[in-house]
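Annex B. Sample input.
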Amino acid sequence: MKKSLVRGAAALPLLLCATPVLADESPKIDGPNTGEEAPIVVSYVPLHPAAGMMNEHMHDGGEFMLGLRYSHDSYRGANQSGTDAIADGDIYAAGYGVRASRMDMDMVMLDIMYAPNDQLTFMIMPHWMRHEMTMVGINPMNTGMDMGGMDMTQPHSGLPFGETMTHSTEGFSDTLVSGSLRLARSPSFNAHVTIGLWLPTGRVDRTNPDGTFVHYGMQSGSGTWDIELVATILGAEGAFGWGAQASYRWRTEEHNASGFSFGDKTLVTSWASHLVGARASATARLSWEHEGQILGHYNAAHRHASPSDRQTNYGGDKVLVGLGLNLALPFSGAKPPQIGFEAAVPVYQNLNGIQLPEDWRLSLSLTKTL
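Annex B, continued. Sample output.
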């Protein structure tokens, strides 16, 4: 899947970005008292630039939008330090007896937007998350023959060499509340800025069966009040569209109730789109993501058996390429429901410490404007 996506992305004229649009040509009619044909009127019905983006569009005054988004992130392969794969022997030499071999993260988001006028659009987005991680024993001295009475039902406790154990967490995550202000609007160019507040509605006290905290990355929320600033520009020329967005998520607190704080996040992305039918557009996107290292430390019982248990093994830089498709369904008049799909793969990863690299991600969206 990864190779086909990269080849597809390279085939597109990379990737200065676009907002997908629908061109609806009205029939030619005679001009009044002249017998001449009136010009064709082209009406642009905007589609979301890519299903994997947020805060990417605004609404006209009085409009209300309800949407549902889903994303899946898959992490696989050899663990990585910086830009290089790291062997199990080196991970063991660094003091770890187990490592992550697989992780899947699923997120469901309810997207509610309302525009009181043409200049302002407000949004609230609750999140639900599920994490599932598989660990593998890498201590060659632990054959499992003599475990000294250890309880093998507990996460990582004496996990024998080569054996695996899977555990998961799920629940409501943080909630994003934001407002967008329009800066420019024309048929060919639009711009807006967004300020968002992340409410710490997700839990950060999830534990293993033995009462120790789970890995930092498997907590459902951040536990901190975060401010996110976003700037977005969009443009269109005929069947082509483009756009770019930059965002920064600032963790305003040094630690949460469990003693730590996730790192700040920066995202810069650009996209291009082209109509592929009367109600469909294809998108290509290039993005750079940066996340800082976790600050602080768990303030109650926790493990140090795997890289995922230490805050120094979080954060880093990624560059991803994504391909997508947006469809306007053929009903509901001038404001049809819209479906978005995007699949993305990382083409560069420079990770802090020792981490399981991301393999691919998938985003889906369904929206309806009223």
